[in-house]
Amino acid sequence: MGIVFKSVPINSVMAVPPERRHDYRVAALQTSEPVRRMIVSPRTGAYLRGLAKSHQLPEAKAVTIAFVVLQVAIGEVSIAKVAGLLSSHLQLPNDRSQDLATELERDIFAPLSLEISKQAASNKQEEQVQAEKKVTKAGAKNVLNLKRKPTAPPPPTPPSPAPFNPAMRRPPNQ
Question: How many CA atoms lie within 13 A of 110 on its CB side?
Answer without folding.
Answer: 7
